[in-house]
Q: What sequence folds into this?
């Protein structure tokens, strides 16, 4: 681990400088990373296609998203209000004791370790949301390259190195560890005394293991693991009566998008047993039969899909409703598959509550709304929950809506859960086991808050305060001054 | 644990209603708690005096602070902007895919367990900051009454019950467990599946034990333990040259305030060896000799003070500089004591870095500024750090100031660390071991953020959104709408 120690020492040295860089300086760095990634051009897409089996269009789109995220954080830094500056002025005549001047802002915590996701080689990987948010916060980043796209990761890392160098960033502000398939280097990174935070996107097994490992440290550090989710979809009767066909087609698309390899993939669909639900199932099945199997990210993920799906389908009372009728053209293609089960059985069998990562969904037939509510009360925390309902049904089912709200990070209405907008209002996270700290998001500008802590200055002379806290507000940012938001 | 299960079940039932109460409704509840505490009047102060040995004036002041905190959170709820509403409007013409409408706000997490502090029977206990912030957030609260002020705690709990009843709060929104001296009930509370967060104020041993215990849960929950701190004070040479006497008198007061029983008590004082530091030490010693010993909170805390102090004073190279010359009038009075040691020895002996909870401080004599920096680099995370310096010295010692900033939650300039203002700009927390999550404060309005998570609504009809997120902003709160702060 001599190498890791050297990397972490250099990151700690970089932090001493980088934490005091202005927002504008950090923004230049982030924009340079975006540029350097773009400059690689075609080669990056080609390598990523080879390593991940993802189609060209998807990868070009994901690269665009990655560049957008970097620029979004640069804009956030340029604007500057994200530091949540708070100023409470002195009041020397206050009784019984004078009030001192106190000012507070968010400051970076230290080196952040990033573990990227296999299903997003760009946007949730080496220069993805975790790295961009941590660098924006003022934290050095050490990325453990994902073995499933090692060359892609190394190429993006090189782009970050070039950007750091040409924008005058301190050496060590970014590092890339190529640890291969094993856990050794990743575990050592989580346990290293200089690591002050961990960002992970991936499976429940991986995310929870890193979280548990970090709990063995002497000093607690924040570990934000964004993990699996079954993203329940609830079909209300009146909605199905009106448009079962349309809802079924929307669901079929969402279930099979990206070969089902999204953490927001709808894995459980709840409906109330009646002829409209049967209509929905018929259309959904017909759609699924027409959708081509596609190659999954890698053999491990394909095998995991087959195993989990086989377990689910072999449970007592589970009926396979439909499987794609289009033949596979390669071994590791995932077959779109729909199954169904009664809520009676679902309620008794926790194996059916688990995520099957791939183009698979289980329809749960409830006897009535009471049983639907009961089934939902057995679910664990979710990234998303989706309600397919008329507005009247939404209004009339307060308890159901409230249950879904409390269960998930994002509640959709007549909309698919796949597709995560990168914006301020996005919550990508949710109650455990969707992630390890529901108080934060891993997507959007607010994801920067995972890597910062508030720091107060008491009775500091104005000239020696950071610009964010100076009396005349030289950065022209929004601040809370004596209990009022002002600019 | 049958009783605990019943309490937690009732809290969970209360949460289903309480989480949907408006800010104004919750504000009425918080103000009613403040009123009910005031109504108890003299009796509450008398009981608290008997249980804690704290003087009347201090307890009256602390009750005032507690009432102020409750009203502060009521004001926060009435104003309403604390929910961090973010709105990203739909853009149906966006290419390649339309942008959906997404809105986000902070929502409560669930039942919060509160463990109060022995040294603040009101402000950090039953109706203190943790309880007030959690109730303001919309979370039910279960308090484990502190055995050192069990009757005080029970009386305050009764006030909360009366307030809940007369303002129509759901039964179970607040509960008080009288678990006696043992850990059994507290541990069971932390491990209970319905517990969604823990607030603790007290010793490192207690706070870390609860944190470690919670890590054995199946589901991770946030544990905010605000623990010990030695609150380093750094004396710069020019400052001492100008006013060693004044600085010494300020320090003597801060060290002995409340018999040193504050988590912000200055336990380590660093200076550079020269005649001005000797002048400082002479005046500090003379002041300490004149300060009366006072009765400590309880026998356990007195014994702990004696034990820790004895260990510190018996370390090689530690010199006792001064002890109060005023005789004790009761057995459990803590004697104000000052010791000194060379930085050479301090650096080699971690026992000297530890908190001695009581009216004790250790002066560390450094050879030069380089050794001062080295000594500081050996310190762990702190609630506060204090710099006694001229403005020139502050400006000329960038590395030193930066080190202190990175070490602590609050950096004071020519000001004592004791005295924690309850205001927006206050950070009371800091890098471990000062607390278990430096990203939050336990004092001030922002402490509400410990108990909330963001929740997004995607494509929701306006009429069915919470008021905070409706198009026409009926609550007239500050919101981030399409990347701009507006009201």
A:
């Amino acid at each position: 681990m001599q190498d890791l120690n050297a990397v972490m020492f250099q990151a700690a040295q970089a932090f001493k400088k980088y934490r005091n860089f202005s927002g504008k300086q950090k923004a230049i760095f982030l924009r340079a990373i975006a540029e350097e990634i773009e400059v690689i051009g075609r080669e990056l897409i080609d390598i990523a296609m080879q390593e991940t089996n993802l189609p060209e269009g998807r990868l070009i789109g994901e690269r665009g998203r990655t560049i957008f995220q970097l620029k979004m954080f640069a804009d956030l830094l340029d604007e500057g209000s994200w530091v949540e500056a708070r100023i409470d002025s002195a009041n020397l005549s206050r009784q019984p004791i004078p009030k001192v001047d106190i000012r507070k802002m968010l400051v970076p915590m230290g080196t952040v370790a990033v573990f990227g996701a296999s299903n997003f080689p760009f946007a949730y990987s080496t220069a993805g949301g975790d790295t961009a948010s941590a660098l924006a916060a003022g934290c050095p980043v050490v990325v453990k390259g994902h073995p499933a796209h090692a060359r892609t990761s190394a190429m993006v890392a090189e782009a970050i190195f070039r950007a750091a160098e040409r924008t005058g960033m301190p050496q060590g502000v970014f590092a890339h560890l190529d640890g291969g398939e094993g856990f050794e280097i990743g575990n050592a990174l989580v346990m290293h005394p200089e690591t002050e935070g961990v960002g992970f996107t991936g499976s429940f097994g991986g995310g929870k293991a890193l979280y548990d490992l970090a709990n063995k440290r002497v000093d607690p550090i924040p570990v934000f693991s964004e993990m699996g989710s079954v993203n329940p979809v609830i079909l209300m009767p009146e909605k199905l009566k009106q448009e079962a066909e349309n809802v079924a087609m929307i669901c079929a698309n969402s279930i099979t998008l990206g070969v089902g390899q999204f953490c927001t993939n709808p894995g459980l669909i709840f409906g109330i047993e009646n002829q409209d639900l049967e209509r929905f199932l018929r259309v959904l099945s017909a759609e699924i039969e027409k959708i081509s199997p596609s190659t999954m990210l890698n053999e491990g993920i394909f095998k995991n899909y087959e195993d989990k799906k086989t377990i689910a389908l072999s449970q007592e009372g589970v009926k396979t409703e439909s499987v794609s009728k289009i033949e596979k053209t390669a071994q590791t293609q995932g077959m779109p598959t729909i199954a169904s089960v009664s809520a009676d059985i679902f309620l008794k069998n926790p194996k059916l509550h688990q995520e099957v990562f791939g183009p698979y969904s289980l329809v749960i037939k409830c006897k009535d709304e009471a049983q639907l509510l009961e089934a939902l009360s057995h679910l664990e925390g979710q990234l998303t929950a989706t309600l397919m309902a008329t507005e009247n049904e939404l209004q009339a089912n307060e308890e159901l809506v409230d249950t879904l709200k409390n269960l998930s990070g994002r509640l959709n209405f007549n909309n698919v859960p796949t597709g995560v907008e990168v914006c301020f209002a996005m919550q990508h996270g949710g109650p455990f086991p969707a992630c390890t700290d529901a108080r934060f998001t891993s997507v959007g500008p607010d994801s920067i808050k995972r890597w910062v802590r508030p720091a107060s200055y008491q009775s500091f002379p104005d000239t020696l305060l950071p610009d964010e806290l100076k009396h005349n507000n030289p950065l022209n940012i929004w601040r809370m001054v004596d209990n009022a938001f002002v600019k």
